[in-house]
Amino acid sequence: MRIVPVTADVSIKRDIDTGTETQREAVEAIIQQVRDQGDQAIRELTKKFDGADIENFRVTKQELEGAYAEMDQSLIEALREAITNIRDFHERQKRQSWLTTKEDGTILGQKITPLDSVGVYVPGGKAAYPSSIMMNVIPAQVAGVERIVMVSPAGADGKLPASVLVTASELNVKEIYKIGGAQAVAALAYGTESIQAVDKITGPGNIYVALAKRAVFGKVDIDMIAGPSEIVVLADEQADARFIAADLLSQAEHDEQASAVLVTTSQKLAEQVAVEVETQLAPLPKKAIAEASIRDYGVIYVARDLVEAIDVVNQLAPEHLEILTEEPMNLVGRIRHAGAIFVGPYSSEPVGDYFAGPNHVLPTNGTARFSSPLNVDDFTKKSSIISYSKQALQTNGHKISALARLEA
Length: 408
Known about the structure:
Elements: E1 2-5, H1 21-37, H2 39-50, H3 61-68, H4 73-91, E2 98-101, E3 107-114, E4 117-121, H5 130-143, E5 147-151, H6 162-170, E6 175-177, H7 181-190, E7 200-202, H8 207-216, E8 221-222, E9 230-235, H9 241-252, E10 259-264, H10 267-281, H11 287-297, E11 299-302, H12 306-316, E12 320-324, E13 340-343, H13 349-354, E14 380-387, H14 390-406
Helix pairs in contact: 1-2, 1-7, 1-8, 2-7, 3-6, 4-5, 5-6, 7-8, 9-10, 9-11
């Protein structure tokens, strides 16, 4: 990994959410085809892109039940415990409607209403992502969304992985469709003969899914345009170079465009981590992916002190931040921009991504400067309540009229 002083440019520039002109045109064509041809377009596009010939793409009760036979019971129990943890965390985010009254009889307030329907996109193809189901479905359920629709691309055999089906079943998701890509996003946004349109689409996907979500925004709401994952480790001289290297590589092997960054006050640690990354990289099953990520987007910044190091972190505004310093909790209050903050040596990123409870759908590419992890609020909307009394209108009517005329 490159070791550079903080005087260098600390931004990670990745133009990953706009795609190429060819990609954008392809997505627009797919969306239009689904709008024009409905289910038939979904079947044709699923066969073209996923190699799956599926006549009825809604998952059946029998498929859900059969998935349990393929799953180890200990894994099912781990899923159930993770679901409990995630639900408990998100229950604490719920907001209540409120009203306030004034002496003149005025009543003002805010009404919190869950969305009617949400579509959850779960990536598929080369791997299974049951954690994505939990992180998107659970906050929607806690918010009170009545209709939750899940879409995920099937394999060439026309099936979804057992872990995906079991997780959806454990969460009691009623509508599951074996479709993916831009065509699935279009179906959720505009509807087809067999899929009723939803009000919001959440969940990560490849560049075509991201571009499709961008294209349908306005017709429906979306959660965010998620880019390649990223991690920043903030460490001082007492941190373990082996653990840091492992955490950096665990992120790098996700995607060639993933970003893995160490910010440290120790030149010695920086050099140790650089060596460890090369050592641990060699036997990785996904070595080629991790190697490209580390080469293009991996860097070690050496800061003069913790003040400068924290400034670097806030400039990067990372998706994941690990703090591995002597007194890590003392630094949390000084972190202004980060999607999720993992504090101390026993809080590595997978703890939060899979089990602890907080949501792992996080802002990427510096957007933590102004956005938050997926949460219960994302599945609700707010209405203002205004009830003026006769007395209040008599008292303030001339002021209201004056302000209205000011804008006439």
